[in-house]
């Protein structure tokens, strides 16, 4: 039996920046990265990325509490807040905090976003995006 699972991802997006610079400044290796114009396949068709991205993801994990994955990402970045704000200013970056929730067997998770997450997202100017997919 499949269980509800959640992925949380922090993405740094912009028109053009060097992934290695972000990695060096933050001291964290991304779980994904691509450049504007890179090719990818979706639904059997080739497309091109429309922005450059450096991303840090929890991967999908069985959970009924979004706060667990949010804190996993936030805890790895919170000490980097000043660096993130400086990188944003220098490279005109946008920050995204995404959650993807696959609901299995009608087991909907708690969608609690606590003040620690809200304060961090606000401080660095990050957008929050939550996508829900009902799988069964």
Describe the structure.
The structure is a single chain. By secondary structure, the chain is of the alpha+beta class. It has one domain (5-134). The chain is built from four helices and eight strands, in the order βαβββββααβαβ. It has helices at residues 19-26, 66-77, 81-91, 115-124; strands spanning 5-14, 32-34, 39-42, 45-48, 52-57, 61-62, 94-103, 126-134. The strands form two sheets. Strands 1, 2, 5, 6, 7 and 8 form a six-stranded mixed sheet that branches. The protein is globular and about 45 Å long. The model has no long low-confidence stretch (mean pLDDT 95).
State the helix count.
Answer: 4
Question: How do the SSEs run, as a string of H and E?
Answer: EHEEEEEHHEHE
Rounded to the nearest angstrom, the radius of gyration is: 16 Å
The major beta sheet can be summarized as: 6 strands, mixed
Helix and strand composition category: alpha+beta
How much of the polypeptide forms β-strand, as a percent range?
Answer: 35-45%
- Report mean pLDDT, rounded to a whole number: 95
Estimate the global geometry from the Cα principal axes.
globular
Low-confidence stretches: none
Give the number of domains.
1
The termini sit apart by: 11 Å
**What level of helicity do the residues show?**
25-40%
How many β-strands, per DSSP?
8
Q: What is the topology?
A:
Elements: E1 5-14, H1 19-26, E2 32-34, E3 39-42, E4 45-48, E5 52-57, E6 61-62, H2 66-77, H3 81-91, E7 94-103, H4 115-124, E8 126-134
Parallel strand pairs: 7-8
Antiparallel strand pairs: 1-5, 1-6, 1-7, 2-5, 3-4
């Amino acid at each position: 039996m499949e269980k509800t699972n959640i992925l949380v991802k922090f993405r740094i997006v912009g028109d053009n920046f060097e992934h290695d610079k972000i990695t060096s400044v933050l001291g964290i290796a991304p779980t994904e990265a691509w450049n504007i114009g890179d090719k990818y396949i979706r639904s059997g068709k080739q497309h091109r990325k429309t922005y450059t991205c450096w991303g840090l993801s929890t991967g999908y994990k069985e959970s009924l509490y979004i706060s667990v994955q949010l804190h996993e990402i936030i805890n790895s970045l919170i000490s980097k807040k000043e660096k993130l704000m400086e990188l944003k200013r220098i490279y005109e970056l946008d920050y995204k905090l995404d959650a993807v929730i696959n609901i299995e067997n009608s087991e909907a998770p708690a969608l609690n976003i606590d003040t620690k997450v809200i304060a961090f997202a606000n401080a660095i100017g990050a957008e929050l995006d939550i996508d829900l997919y009902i799988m069964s």
